[in-house]
Amino acid sequence: MKKPLFISAAGILLLAFVAGVLFYGAEKNEQTAQLAQANRSALVRAHSQTLGQPDARVVIVEFLDPACETCRLFYPFVKDLLSAHPEKIRLVLRYAPFHQNADYAVALLEASAKQGKYWETLEALLAVQSDWVIHHAVQPERIWPHIEGLGLDLEQLRSDMNAPEIARLIAQDREDARTLNVTQTPEFFVNGKPLPSFGYESLKQMVDESLASAYRQDTESK
Amino acid sequence: MNATHPSNDIGWTLIFIAWLSAAVSTLAALFLGEIMGHTPCVLCWYQRICMFPLVLILAAGLFPFDRRVVRYALPLAVTGWLLAAFHWAVASGLIPERLTPCSQGVPCSVEQVIWFGFLTLPMLSLLAFSLIIAMLLLTHLKVSK
Q1: Are both A97 and A153 inside the same structural domain?
Q2: For chain A, N or C: smaller number of CB within 10 Å?
Q3: Average pLDDT of each block of 10 consecutive residues along chain B (145 residues)?
Q4: What separation in angstroms does the CA of A105 have from each of A45, A142, A148, A175, B105?
């Protein structure tokens, strides 16, 4: 009598836990999807950095923190997705600078965009991220040596970084992240929909599905 | 099966209730922390250190029933209770902020979860540890050596 009681109690507790996990996950995903639906303007802003063709029908919006390790690990994967379908996928980068001092790195990136070297600078910084992010905090003075070889006008960059429009841009992105309930980075939205679960596989699957549905007519007409 | 002393059945049930309390608390803590993303504060972590092993220790004391499980579980339960009491005092403002050991990360004095307008996590932790201690003490008193 005791063993069955114990085993069934343990089983019920575990089942309740698993059911809770699934239910909560589905609920949260639904909420995020609705939030994104209701706040379409918060998903993509005119100031956002983009990669890919403007008429691509699949848009990946990534909320990124340049100091976030998982963002760094995801970056090559996202680039691979893009290069597999260069005409069909567009990447829009938004910021959710949650790490300490991460605003500094974002401001520097945005200033590099003024010199037309945004993506080079981003990639250079991500490649050596562990050197300028120590214990989850951005060390501003440690960034500069890494961008010397990129042909940037560093003096110009330093003054551009403090431009009020960059501060406004960061504030806007932070606010949009809050509106869309983005609490962790990276967070992806594929054609306005959040990932059902976090991971490479999940992102790839969503992108594949979106590609299939967005370009269905084309393949049918051919 | 060997004939068991009737008081052993009572003891088994008491330890089983204590185990249920520990198991529910552990799963709830994991759910709040891992699934809902409420990062545990320092005091929460210390209480977890006391609560999580109770699930295993109490279960081990059930099969076969061993009254000595009280000796091994009680130190953890009492330590957890003291931590929960301290946490509750910090969170409800009885102990001033400057005495709190958590200065960075998640502050212990901020209530992240409040259910039904009054039920906070330190309170639930205190209740769970109290229940476990009560069950252990009853087992000690009721079960003959």
Answers
A1: yes
A2: C
A3: 69 94 94 83 90 96 92 96 91 66 54 67 93 95 81
A4: 20, 11, 15, 18, 22
Task: Look at the block and give the residue holding tokens 């087992």.
Answer: B139
One-letter identity of residue B99: L
Do A69 and A143 fall into the same domain? yes
ipTM over 0.85: no
Q: Are residues A11 and A109 in the same domain?
A: no
Domain locations in chain B?
6-142
> A5 and B16: CB-CB below 8 Å?
yes
Domain of A123: which CATH number? 3.40.30.10
A39: amino acid identity, one letter = N
Residues of B in contact with A20 (CB under 8 A): 31, 35
Residues ≥6 apart with Cβ < 8 Å to A131: A142, A146
Contacting residues of A for B37, CB less than 8 Å apart: 183-184
What one-letter code names the amino acid at A211?
L
Domain span at A96: 41-221
Say if B20 is an interface residue toward chain A (CB within 8 Å). yes
Question: How many structural domains is chain A composed of?
Answer: 2
Which chain A residues contact residue B60 at CB under 8 A?
Answer: none
Q: Cα distance from B10 to chain A (closest Cα, Å)?
A: 12
